[in-house]
Batch of 2 targets.
Target 1
Amino acid sequence: MLQNYISDFKGSLKACTELRAQMNSNQMVNLLKGNLTSNQSNNHRGVSARIFKNGVYGFASASEYNRESVRTVLDAALKNADFLNAKAKREPVILPEVSRGSFPLNMQEHIVPQKYFIDYAKEVDDYITTHYKNLDSRSITCKQDTVEKLLCTVDSYESHTITPRANMYINMTANDNSGVPISLYEAWGEFGAFDSVFPDPKDIREGIDRLYERIMQKREAVYAEGGLKQVILDSDLAGILAHEAVGHTVEGDLVRFGSVAGSYMNKKVASELITLVDFAHSYEGKLLGVPVFVDDEGTKAEDVVLIENGILKEYMHNKETAAHFGARPKGNARANEFVDEPLVRMRNTAILPGKSTMEEMIASVEDGYYFMNPTNGQADLTGEFMFGVAMGYEIKKGKLGRAVKETTISGIAFDMLKTADMVSDEMVWKNTGWCGKKQWIPVSMGGPAIRCRINVGGR
Amino acid sequence: MNKIEIGTYILEALLAAGADKADCNISSNRVDELNIDNGNINLLRSLFTTNIGMKAIKDHKSGTISVNSSDPETLDKAVSDCMEAARVSMVEEAEDIAELTENCVVGSEAEVDLELLHFRLEELVKDTAKRFPKIILNEIHASFISGSRVHRNTNGVQMEELYHSYEVMIEFSARDKDTSSSVSGYDITMDNLDKPFLEIGILAQVLEQTERSIYPKPLEGKFEGTVLLIPDVFNQLLHTMQGLLLSDGRLIDGTSQWKDSLEKPVAAPSFTLSCNYSDRELVTSGDVITNDGYRSSDLTIIDHGVLKSFLISRFGSRKTGIPRSNNYGGYYTVEPGDQSLEDIIASIEKGILMGALSGNQPDSSGEVSGVAKTSFLIENGKIKEAINETMISCNLLELLKNIRGISKEQICNGYYKLPYIAFDGVVISGK
């Protein structure tokens, strides 16, 4: 646990100053074809200070965390702010006022022994090797990332939070019918310590069985046909759609850079079946994968309704972009490590469920695809997005057909969302994702399955 | 304690705690970074960072711990955790530490010239506004990193690297009234600030291409054609190739499709790929000493199409029997060809000039697909209009055998020295 040295400095802090002590801990074990290729534990703590002065920021951080280093980073941050302020040729910016308060420690630290990760991974590996003989390789990664943050400000919220996230990734590789290796992975994850989220390896056997069944189908996969197609995006793809296709275009800093969403506020950007929210910490009373109670600028976190029944309603902000747009920040300023400054980031982003069943949705497609298993994704100011898809099936005359090979799907977000004409009644959260935007940071995504028209990369 | 003393402290503590062998990496650096946001220099960050990693091997079982503080209490706990991680680990005969060959001190540190860095950034903003008035410099991160790292182990290995470099990461788009182009990016690295940033690599050309791509047209239909990559995109594919075909993971589990291809042709004969740490035009600062205790030296990976080496560490080498490679990749050089870029373009019947690729993470099969961004149609030997909503699909292994042309022009941005390269047989599909 972090010692609280920073509160001793509260009396000397000026407005628009964040003093943050932070510890990022990571434990990871990887078994690659039964070989232990990683058995590591990392623990990085430090302190940073950021000072805002007339529209510029000075920031400094130090690995050593004690009273002396807190003083050092405050002095260095002020020096940096003064350096820039002397050179800046811009109008002063007034940051919005936010509520003040204190968010007390949300949970106690819980250390999971390294042996737990190794034993868990070995038992999963043994299950796979015992039951499945047609694999060329398998990789099992068990990990936990925990972030502890202590934040001190004089004009915003203060907080002390601990947020562990436990994840497991299984990747299988097999040879296809022509002897070419193909892979497929599955990921699991939730907020919490690894031994709480994964108490028993038997709990994920159903998921492992499903992964194996799919990779065996993928051995006989065909290329998808390239072009504009009607598709059912499984819930994990809907989540990445919410994040990549829409989420990035409505981050306040990107809107200021010229995101296409800048001209769409209060306009129709999706079908009325689509409501998209960036949740702060909870959904239907349950804590989400990346709960943010107070962000790293000291803003108390609230949900942001980005799209409501197809209409663009809000952007996500830090204090500076909120000032620019005359909006209220709602806790989207996040920093990954103590060396990082807060940026506008998503938290738990999801499309809300609808009323259709999966059976109805698949039966409704005459000629298209059912896609699942996203690999990665990217977005653009123009609204053009892409994500990689590792698994899918043809749909012909309302029935699932052959598996399809790796492909990529893309589109222009606000055009594609207008084609969403069926939304399933289930809500599935995926708490395994990371988002890169100068800093890699954990994010959570969710959603139902969606029927829409999208560009498919194929042969 | 200085780094050598910290290393001694750690190794002695691990041996005293029962380790058979151990190694450690200790580094500290200072980073000063200026950030531009929406055309204004609005953030100066100064980071003082320490990283200490240690590995203990006992009874052929290993554990690895990393912390970022050198106070004795933190180090003692790390040693204890490291030994515990080793104790509960699995037997892995391939785990080892570097053998003692020749200890060394390489590189140099330097002080940041913050005033000059600020000047070069302001110069970039002014010159860009003058030459490319539609370009918006969304974000720029310009940093100076200076530090040192030490690798030590219980075989007596002691390697020290001092390093310094400037790195500038530029993200931009073009705008005309309410219409924006795609976001583009270009990174450069250097060890001095002698040149204006616009004169480094092909930054100016990429800015110009981005300006010309504000009003793209969707490509119609689908065809098999030629893709001409700018060096940046080519570098991205080389890194993908490294992970899929050349590095430890895929070799250890046997899924690299090149695992049996040493001394066999894997690419067109015109293709020679190397990774040269002695090349002074490349800024390899901070990466010369590997984490497993070796000094990187030059390496030819593919020679006139024939695979000559993998990029495999000591651990990977002991697992597979493949000799450890001279370095572990990352700073690529491809030998230039004998055609000018202009001649290559003139030879293309139908294809695209690709300024950026937003693509998937391919699996072992090497299937790559993605969206072509800041790209232009090439038809009958001429570059035509900018295009959008265009996807490409190909296989990375087949691509290297279908090289149409490699340009005479070889571009260096400090991270790589690469020519332009054109590949045939790529499926290009539009709306």
Note: The mean pLDDT of chain B is 95.
Target 2
Amino acid sequence: MKDERKVSLKENFTKGLLKENPVLRLVLGTCPSLAITTMASNAIGMGLAATFVLVCSNLVISLLRNVIPDKVRIPAYITIIAGFVTMIQMIIKTYLPALYDELGIFLPLITVNCIILARAEAFANKNKPLASVVDGLGMGLGFTAALLAIGSVREILGSGTWFGLSITSGIIDPMIIFILPPGGFFVFGILMAIANKLSDRGDKNNSAPLEVGCAGCTNVGCNLNNKA
Amino acid sequence: MNKQKFKEIVHPALVLTIICLVVTLLLAITNYFTNQVVNPALDKAEVQVLMGLETDDFSLESTASENAYVVNDSAEKNIGYVILSSGKGYKGDISIMTGFEDDGTIIGIMVLESAETPGIGSKIEDESFLNQYKNKKSVDEFKVVKNKTTNDDEIQGISGATYSTNGINEAINNAMNEYLSIKEG
């Protein structure tokens, strides 16, 4: 299972931002991407909380990659991830209660956010700690950026505001559909198309994600069969 | 053979148990530290804003009801009431805090907890909506109407947010009833 090419740290970081953006390219973490993006301000809070968990869990799982036996891989990862999510939940509830109310159920749901488990499976358990942290940072920030993009479009078109500030509300009637679920899907699909177009540009031979195969797979179960 | 089987079963279970114990310990520590910051049921600073008071030179006195408090000024004179109440919104309960003058006029309403749809139901927290209740004396019951209001106990709803407006209206009516029962009893 050796990697075909050595990947630099910088590449590890930047791939999460566009070429392998978890939301728009790998199609992971779609639930919060649709549910909380009715307002742009939610995106930052959610994105940073998820990034914190992603970086911490990638680091710990990478450090323990030779210690955790294959058989209990998944339960061990879930326990570690749930631990970090609960910690950040307690911290946000105490110091940022307004954000806590806004995120609601989606904060504890970070635990089962596919992005975190997928990165643990596809990257952290095969790579060194520093590379894993950098991967976590890149993926987390890519997640945040995607949320911000979707949230901004939906908020501007759907409420006429951006981060609460009025943009078009005096001039154009806001189209409420954009802050309802169907609008979320419309925006998501269009942004995915744009991201695909931008990623393919200038990359004629190698437009597939760096980790081929399981990286974009949301069915983590299939990984269990692949391990020797 | 036995030793290998032993390792195959015990070792994974042991590692998992240790991970669980370590995670639990870290959570207990985090919980201990974050719980130090106590969030009281009634925030004095919020009450000050709600009642429109210049200074925090006032005190809260509990009443027979656990949801109603008398607000007394520095001379122990009754300057009003703060009442906690809730109503059923679109997504769960909406919890509010209502400030009343001694004679029952509504000074203001503060939403404490609500999980209404952002951008639609959340508009019940907008000043433009809540101001409809301000300075109104307690009536039998506030009613939410879709068109222009014709009398004092009617409140204009928010289009597309019927459940949310009904929910907060119910909460305010509950607060009013609480005020009346405190006043009488």
Note: The first strand of chain B starts at residue 58 and ends at 62.
